[in-house]
Amino acid sequence: MNDTKNRYVTVLWEARAKPGREAEMRAFMTAAVTPSRNDQGNIDYEAHEVEGQPGTFIIYERWENRDALNRHLSAPRMQELVPRLLEMMEGSIEEGIRILQPFRPAR
């Protein structure tokens, strides 16, 4: 990664609900979106369910810089949400995280 403090950071996070917990996880994620949108440095924070794959969720996030993302991830409410989320989802949170680096073609 070659991001700098002055460069925005985009995160895609994908998670799959355990069988039978799809609606519970959807409701949980819905409730978590608005507080994250209000975190300092947030540009965009949207939760999605993959069409044709019920229970597969993707969160698309954009942050002003890496420091803003790190503040979000270390917020006390996030530390409280993680154990509850792990009960509902398959695998680990880290498995679904992708940090995207913007680039543009040379002119």
Automatic annotation (TrEMBL):
Record keywords, A-Z: Monooxygenase, Oxidoreductase
GO molecular function (one): monooxygenase activity
Domain ABM positions: 9-100
Superkingdom of the source species: Bacteria
Transmembrane segments: none
PANTHER family referenced in this protein's UniProt entry, alphabetically: ABM DOMAIN-CONTAINING PROTEIN (PTHR33336:SF15), QUINOL MONOOXYGENASE YGIN-RELATED (PTHR33336)
Protein name as catalogued: Quinol monooxygenase YgiN
Species: Paenibacillus typhae
